[in-house]
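quick one before i forget lol
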Amino acid sequence: MKIEPNQQNKMFAPLWKMSDDLRGGTVAMRAAAEQYLPPNPHESAEGYSRRLRRATLTNFYSKAADRVVGKLLTRAPAPTDKVPARMIEFAGNVTGTGDDLAAFSRDLCTQGVDYGVAHILVDRERIEAETLADEQAAIPYWKLIHPSKLLDWDTQIVDGIEVYNFAVIQFDVTERDDFETKKKCQYWVYEPNRLRIYEEMEGSDEPELIEDVDTGFDYVPLVSAQFRGVGFAGGRPLLEDLAHLNVEHWVSNSEQQNITHAVRAPALTLTRTTESGESESEFKQIVTGPNQLTVLDAGDTLAFLEHSGKGVGAGRTELEALEQHIATSSLNLTMGRRPGNATATARALDDVESSLDLRPLSRELKQALEAALRIAGDMLGTALPQDDAQVDVFEDFASLALADSEMRDLLELNAIGALTRASLLREAKRRNLLPDDLDVIEELSLAEIENPVAGGQSVFDEENNP
């Protein structure tokens, strides 16, 4: 039996890798080399290598993706008061390694944005259990599964809900033997009431069954959150278009750096009259510098040949246009803007409309967390309510967008001198953008020390009682 990814996994793997490489920054993009930065025609291997080593990534994608995650987690997810005390305690350490529900949710949302889908595997410690009480003493834990590691799956409809009834997950296990580490590849095959673990062995083309476990549950303990799902377990990066634009910027910026490097120094040219029988290959190399003397024959001309710079300017203009396009695209999910001088009401409506795109993601997060919490409750022998009030997540993106729009108007009033900075800080506090315990007078004093007002005017001159 040879275990391989199914066709849907293979289809989306390059997109998931693009998200991973952009997240990995300059180092990961350089390592990917020709996958994203193709060599130019007739470019030597050494020339390409130098160009690749000079290339740096401006990571628009990561910043935009983190902004979306931050919006989704404006308020950290938390269990409601309907959840039993034992499960509230579990929510304080859902991974078994110290991550609580809020920290796990950030990682889950990051995967959902990067890959369009995020998978939660609920497992528990394996102990020798003689009774049901012994089984329930085994502590469950959650583990995020990279979508590329979910190699195959199948589903069924149970009570009107589609759930997994088969899943193959690849795990790369590291074992230490004294001062040596060995990496092993395992395949966990889940079915209702059953888990089989296969491991690749040296000298064998087929993995060997090393464990066959009766899970005791008539379902597969795997939950998926689909932020931009395709099918049941596939997904495309939520910001796929922005990711492609960031790769385009990586290539364009490399080209711009290359041409700038080439034309930065002028080329030295020599015009001379050669005697009969003398070839250009016999010309001596000319070395220039402050301590060098160049001797020319009669009639020779030595000059510098400089580039006009028009090509560099055109490249710079194209790069700036691309950066502006990226900046606009990166705000689509979190900010909405009409062209021109829109009214405050129009801008607020734009923000509300664009923020609605986040509500389905918030619902996916809620459903996935609640489903995983119910599975953990089954493993602990603690029943959870079947309603949708187990985990509280932030969904009021409309009011958040309106507050952002109002703050932009207040900032504009402050910029034209129609609103004092003290009033601006008070309004920011009222909209929960600043801590409630912030002292406005003290904050203005510190701001004046760090950035004194031009002309020596104190910030306290703005109003009689700041």
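fyi Residues 403 and 431 are 7 Å apart (CA to CA).
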